[in-house]
Amino acid sequence: MIVKEIEMLSQLLFHERRRINILLQTNDRRNGERRQRVEAYSPERRRPASRIRCQEREGIVLPIRLEIEGKDRVGHMVNISPGGVMIRTNTPLREGLEVFLHLFSEQDAFSLRLFGRIVFCRSLEERGSLSQAVGIQFRTSGEFNQKVLAATIDLISKKDATEDQFGISILISDERHLVEKQPGALPMLPLISKAITQIREMPINQITSPETRRTTVGGRRKKQELRFTPDPDWVIKMNQSLEPYRQVILQSRLVQETSKGQLSLKQIRGWNIQFYPFIHSVPHFIALNLARANDPMSRTYLIDNIRVEKRHADQWVDMAQGFGVSTEELFQSPILAEVEALTHWMWSVTTRASFIESVAALHYAIEGITQEIAAIMVKELNKYKLFEWVHLDRKACQWMEMHTRYDHRHPYKALEIIKLHAVSLKDQEKVKEATQRSLEYLFLALEACYVAFA
Questions:
Q1: Which of 262, 343, 344, 400 fits a disulfide with 257 by CB distance 3.0 to 4.6 angstroms?
Q2: pTM (two decimals)
Q3: What CATH number is given for 57-214 in this structure?
Q4: Which fold has domain 233-452?
């Protein structure tokens, strides 16, 4: 009995000493009080640091264009500081989501783009549609980038935002690779604005591309046509020198006879079989370009393009099967040397050449001419429905129709990326050479398919 009583007494003393030591050793009054309270920690208790940060922010109420996972949402900005921005919206958002933010002014002609992430989302007690307060933390680095952002915020705060036509566009996505961390400079386009002059004069070597904007017409949202920057002289001269190469492809026997319904079924099947490995590899080429993209405009374009091209590979299989090509023929047939050379060239330029050369070779050259080829070929595609074993339903024609419908803007978007990066004469010459070489290889591949299956 005595032993048991001693053990119980020692346990009581141990727990008492532990409680006393915790209270004595703590240096934080809030933590000590929190341990003594029985109730759980309340999220409404705010730290003093958060109050200080709130006082440092500029209270600017500004409507925003908010895109969440590809859908437009209602929202407006509450305040902004060089460290982040607070917005209000009607959609609850998860902490950690990646954010791409675009701040612009049409009157002062400046555009600031930067990355961030959501650090909190709180439900407000106020009644109304905008019931969620969302905090977004900017990811900026470098003293100059911080000054640019601070000067831009100061410029907005001193003027009437609506009167000066200021705007803010925020893209939020659950995909981490949409907004990649950049250890270097802030990924932004140049500021042709008063914000730049308030800091210091600096050479501008990048060009801002106007974005697609949405307006409200008759109570409904209407998408305006995408506007592109004017082509400099070197781009105009490059296109003039490349036009004969494009015309040779468009006037090739395979393209023209298909557009008239005169190409033999054997040649069409052979063309479908031969080009499938290249079509299947296009998303891989784009992924290699995406890994080297260092600005938000390029990354956004390439990410969207990967999603589209992944569907195109499946649509190509549907088209081949519609023309009577079996799965075994499509996947196991030997590839002609000229067609394989096109695929090898693209692997080479996307892995060994510069980023801007690979964009020119794939997106500007191949995607641009592919849209024109599809627009020509689709005219008389229905004539092949008369052939036996041909079933050209809507699914089988989707590859042609999709390229004709929405791929026409891809090469122009790629050209905006080219104009953004190709600032030296050497880079501009490399862009021209890469574009020309892709067109040459494509022509050789088309001619080889026409001759081999004639």
A1: 262
A2: 0.53
A3: 2.40.10.220
A4: Heme Oxygenase; Chain A (1.20.910)
